[in-house]
Amino acid sequence: MSLAHALLAALVDHPNSGYELAKRFDGSVGFFWKASHQQIYRELAKLEAQKWIGFQAVSQDGRPDKKLYHVTELGQKQLAEWIDRPCELAPLKDELLVKVFAGRVAPTAVVLELKRHRITHQERLAVYKQIEKETFIDPSQLPLEAKFPYLTLRQGIRYETEWLAWCDEALQMLADQSSQ
Amino acid sequence: MSLAHALLAALVDHPNSGYELAKRFDGSVGFFWKASHQQIYRELAKLEAQKWIGFQAVSQDGRPDKKLYHVTELGQKQLAEWIDRPCELAPLKDELLVKVFAGRVAPTAVVLELKRHRITHQERLAVYKQIEKETFIDPSQLPLEAKFPYLTLRQGIRYETEWLAWCDEALQMLADQSSQ
DNA sequence: AATACCATGTAAAGAGTTACATGATTGG
DNA sequence: CCAATCATGTAACTCTTTACATGGTATT
Questions:
Q1: How do strand B53-60 and strand B63-71 relate by DSSP bridges?
Q2: Which pLDDT tens digit goes with each residue over B159-169?
Q3: Which residue among A80, A106, A162 sits closest to B84, beta carbon to beta carbon?
């Protein structure tokens, strides 16, 4: 039920085609929701059938036509109602943590994975910090509507910072061991 | 493909029945993998059919019989091979962040949700810290095999700490706004 | 007497992944 | 000429969630 609302949230921010949404879900929106283009096209068709969103066909020169989707009034009402319904904390499913938990079965492989993930978190953090620097110069002066997306970026920064620090803690703890 | 490995990881730690696993996945193991009892029973049947796990029927007095599952040698080999294969970062799907992103559609509801989630994170953090205090008195002196589960607990503590801090940051930023 | 806990499952529906499919344009 | 980008979709499969189903024991 939630990809629908993630799409509404993205489209309420600004109208997009399915293709553009797929790219957003692979980039900034992907920091809090992942979805493939197949899933997105299927869900857009459903939302359109329910009249939660509408579209205009836009013809472009040198490129295929696209369907520019926008949220209808009904869609906005549905989104607001969904926000109003309390939700659970996001359920965790983290393969790396499963690997670490079972680490004694393959200790050296776990250390390698930690190093790999450490680098990825570092890269993501750099990207987020860059976005923060470039697009949010004075956060306290933002108008209310801009504070909401800014806060999701802040979560991303905190999240990646935390993972990076944990990878370091883990690598140090496991390195200490082997040098004993 | 991964619930299988999460179950192997839990069973390698120690043998359990499906019922006990369901409780573990609702508690400590749930910090990195969520699964319902229905999913668990179905997956256990599959793993047993593939001979990655085996079980002994245990009869108890005053309680129904249970099937105590354990990981076979083949299962351990499979688990080690899976750990060896590099994995992606866990994909995020967080309803609260979707709500915050679309916050301008229902600002007061978002603040309420932030407050609710803040309390839940606070409670979880307290539980994790309690576990750390009670069962890991001197982490640097732990034998290697105990360091692995300890590190997943550390992740849990960092994760909840980070969420709590972010909820506070968000609530403050949104409160500032309304007082202007 | 009612509720909670122990213990195991099936069935149906919904969500997500992987593979397949097409076709034009642009840049190296 | 080959690869990448733009743009949209279908089909099959797997995974997850929700609801249904049973039945004994322990506690309030």
A1: antiparallel
A2: 999 999 999 99
A3: A106
